[in-house]
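User: Please run a holo structure prediction.
Assistant: Happy to. Please share the sequence and the ligand.
User: Here you go; the ligand is calcium ion.
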Amino acid sequence: MLDGPVILVVEDEPDIQELICYHLEREHFATVKASTGDEALHIIKTSNPSLVLLDLMLPGISGIEVLKTIRYVLQLATLPVIIVSARTDESDIITGLELGADNYLPKPFNPKILVANVKALLRRAAASGQTDIADVSQIVSGHLRLDVVRHEAFWNDDPVLLTATEFAIMELFAKNVGRVFTRNQLISALRGESYPVTERSVDVQIASLRRKLNDGQNSIKTVWGIGYSFQDTQ
Ligand code: CA
């Protein structure tokens, strides 16, 4: 059998499916193909893929239903799922992210970004499988360092003074580098803070964070029509 990661490519358009598989196989990933939601679920139940690339518009069971089944029926909370979908499916993409997809890539996709996302998610999945009791008080991601005990943030070792809400957003980002969060997901993560959080106030918090990060402001990316993600690419 295959030793390395196996990527399940769920896509009903044969040309796109071929193209995705071509780029993954060129990077030495093994691929399994499904062109319907039923087929995808059958493969997930029987052959335990490492990651799923999921189209949303499928004949029969939709990609959203596949994702719901993965997370809530099969209870596969940690199986990485990347939605690959056209931007016209924006509301479905948001639903997908809120149902627990790890990321989304718009069609037409850039093959390099697709492969980079697959690699990043597999790395993250591997890392989260290891118990990390070494030092949970510090989160370091690129130029960012968070001391979660003292609630102190640093960029390039310079202190950045954040409010409690801003710190909570940065902590979520730093623990999930590259992951796209919808505004609603950020709101849910911030519930428990002492004042109401709205979609608009999320935008305000992000704007304030960017100002405070100075050189690092580009690390918080706006994902058009969807939400925000964090990636320190400098
Ligand atoms: Ca499709």
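The chain has eight helices and twelve strands.
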